Amino acid sequence: MNKMNIRAILYYIGGSLLVVGAAFPVFPGLEPYAPMVYTIGALLFAAVQISASKEQTDVVLKRLRRQQVLSCGILVVAGIMMFMKKYHISLCTGDEWKLALAIGAFMQLYTSLRMPKQEDVQD
After folding, report:
1. Nearest-angstrom CA–CA distance, 107 and 67
2. Rounded Cα gap, residues 30 and 82, in angstroms
């Protein structure tokens, strides 16, 4: 297998674990496993997205790329906040992780829709 296939597989596994881990708190029996599953998925997803960078000359694409990297960081922070809730660490004992997840997911959605259109305009 070549490097691109491995990256694609890790990307899809990470994205799947992200979604599954975010859904686990809905099911009472699976809630204790949610932070671990979600954080592993977020780390895989972020690692693949950050490592798949290419040189951009367009200012708009550079800005979108920075937003994409920032949203990866926010998704990882949401996982850390899930652990903070699970272990009752004083800063995040509520559901603040849901807000971080929503912000990170919205930014990912925006950049994933906007970047291909901007690449078409550039070419």
Report:
1. 7
2. 14
| pTM for this entry | 0.93
Contact between residue 75 and residue 51 where contact means Cβ atoms under 8 Å apart: no
Paired tokens of 117: 């259109």
Please compute, for residue 99, the number of CA atoms within 13 A of its CA located in the half-sphere on the CB side. 4
Q: Residue 62's pLDDT is what?
A: 93
Residue ranges of the chain whose pLDDT lies below 50 = none
Q: Which two tokens stand for residue 20?
A: 């599954």
Domain residues for 17? Answer: 3-122
Tally of structural domains, the chain: 1
Residue 10's closest CA among 44, 43, 36, 37?
Answer: 44
